[in-house]
Amino acid sequence: MIEVLSVASEAYPLVKTGGLADVAGALPGAMAAHGVSMRTLIPGYPAVMREAGLARLVHEFADLFDGPARLLAGRMMGLDLIVLDAPHLYDRPGNIYLGPDGKDWPDNWKRYAALSWVAGQLALGLVEGYQPEVLHAHDWQAGLAPAYVKYGPSDRVKTVLTVHNLVFQGHFPAEIYGRLDLPPHAYYESVEYYGGVGFLKAGLATADAITTVSPTYAHEIRTPAFGAGLDGLLNVRANALHGITNGIDIEAWNPATDAALIEDYGASSVHKRAINKQAVRDRFGITGDNAMLFAVVSRLTSQKGVDMVAANVDWLVSLGATLVILGSGDAGLEASLEAAAARHPGRVGMIKAYDENLSHLIQGGADAILVPSRFEPCGLTQLYGLRYGCVPVVSRVGGLADTVIDANEAAVEAGVATGLQFSPVTSETLGEAIQRAVTLYGRAKVWRKMQRRGMKSNVSWDASAKKYAQLYASLLGQELDEQDGD
Ligand code: ADP
After folding, report:
1. Residues at CB less than 6 angstroms from ligand 1
2. Which element (helix H / strand E) includes 146?
């Protein structure tokens, strides 16, 4: 078995604010079948400490970045964890990153430098009987961990940094550098970023391998349009950069057993979705003929391109289709979507909320799900759509480009299409894609085939887990020890 220490600021189901938590939470379970044993180092937030009652004390720090701290090891909610219990850093209520004023905690640099520094110590064999071979850091919060290994007394442990969204970079004033316990020359060599300290930048500069969550996003972030200031460095590191697409939890998202659906179904019984569709229509106040039903389930932000949906509502209704929107976020976007819904009572409905169960019902009932993101590192919504026979209509960027097969005539002919893609990403091209979807929906046999094909797509973690295992093995100069082989 390859021994991997994963370092993450979130892991589902213990603590989650975004997709990083899903990956950090799902990967360890998926890795075991591929000869990898993975433990996760995570901060001792209140939600984590509540589960840590039976954990074993494995180390104490008298002073870790201005306060005492302990390391606790144990199995919690299905994960092998090493918890960094440092109350002065993590024992705070509410959102893990934000203070009561809704702004980032001013000492976030210290909170995550501590996490990364401890990871570096574990790589050096801090805890007797535990020696990881690979340190796998996630996002800016763990970005300094590869730097601590590289500039520490031994860099024998190999390091991997995964970027879940390049936009979040952990950029802090240069003044903190002296507190980080890194040598002076590391500043200009690796850590300095636009005159300050860049946590993610430091990781990108020092990790042995960099991964991001889809192959297309791995290419895109090497361009100025998607590189968020880091494309130059990513080009220098191109040989170390890999794209590995995320999977989804196929147990929690299974239309054959989903308790959130009115009627469960499988690829051979997609007609049963009609019952769920009626339930979705009822929830959103959609009336009249049983028209094609588009859906949006999304954070309402500019990244997600929902302004382009708002711009297309009148057009979509003019094509005879209907639309439901579940989401919340940016106040301006909420207002424009609400106004669009108000213009088309009975044809367009909006619920301004985060509602996990309703999102399942929508995937199990709507005909198509719109995901017109401007950029999308991987995206989960379209994967749920595929699994539920809710045909994804997506912009051709990032993970959306990699996971949906566009229904051009050749793909329809060959029976391999699973959704619709549009490019470049504009309101006009989204409008064209909506029209194309309405036309295809009219070809009932073709549509059904596309649904079935999508439902058979492999969206599980297994394929991704194998790629991570291959990456670890190659860093260690090993052949992959495949237990299940293929
Ligand atoms: P991101 O992590 O950038 O928001 P993803 O597509 O990777 O985008 O993941 C979004 C997840 O959040 C999906 O599981 C989606 O179903 C869910 N989601 C987004 N908005 C809502 C909402 N209003 N209610 C329920 N689930 C939502």
Report:
1. 18-19, 297-299, 326-328, 353-356, 359, 379-381
2. helix 144-150
